[in-house]
Design a protein that fits this description.
Rossmann fold, 16 helices, alpha/beta, Glutathione S-transferase Yfyf (Class Pi), Chain A, domain 2, 307 residues, 2 domains
Length: 307
Amino acid sequence: MAKKAFYHFLGCIIPHRYPSVEKAVKLVFNDLDMKLLDMEGATCCPAPGVFGSFDRITWATIAARNLTIAEAGGHPITTGCNGCFASLWDANYELKHDEELREKVNENLAVIDREFKGTIEVWHYVDALVEVAGLDKIREKVTRPFKGVRMALHPGCHWMRPKILKQKDDSERPHIFRELCETSGAEYVPYKDELICCGAGGAVRTADVQIALGFTMQKFDSLNDAGGADMMITPCPFCELQLDMGQVEIQKYFNKEYNLDILHVVELLALAFGHDAEEFGLATHLQYIQRKTEPQWEKLGINVEQS
């Protein structure tokens, strides 16, 4: 049987800040017999909360141009960024259902000899992993389970919402992302503020980093109140940036110290599938570089000598 193929929309944060995520997802998808195709010519998604707030047609035109790249090749898009997913999924949905918007966008695209046709779908990595590979196959690939490791989750905002349209999971009581992460063998730790924003969304991080960090501290403190965890898993690199680099910034601005390993879900699975941390560059995460520290290998159940 031929591998299920996806055009791989990297976005901005993964290649520029977290190349470890790009490498990890290639390892994981390959292990699960799924194929990632380079999406040549792709641009920023663009950021939904920024571009979409200023000019809906400009936002939809840029997103539609990206969608037409995949349409030309005949394969769906997959992305590992909640913001990119929201922008591309929402644009795809709106352009399919709003004839007036589609006409205006296609007028713009005609200048570069492109046309949005609405022939492909947009998948998050989480969707592809759960719906195409399946949880049973993922469990079969786990050779290094995270037994005894306490795992907190940060699903983020844009993958599930608005739930009335996306209908992927219950955004108030989600379980799909949790079930995917639990295939790693780690112990899920629920905490009160699991579902609040990481703090970076809606350009808050750009406008006032200290206000953004207030949300991040609230999450970490809520987790500590629940007994703490060894790692926090997210499906979004922008959330990963806020939760990872945010620990360094909190120490700088508020003189509070947190030491929590932050992993993208595909990094978690790459480790669980038996790939060494060096194979995908886990130690390049920003808090390790800034603090000149390493991941808490032993807490994560990773043999230090092998890493």
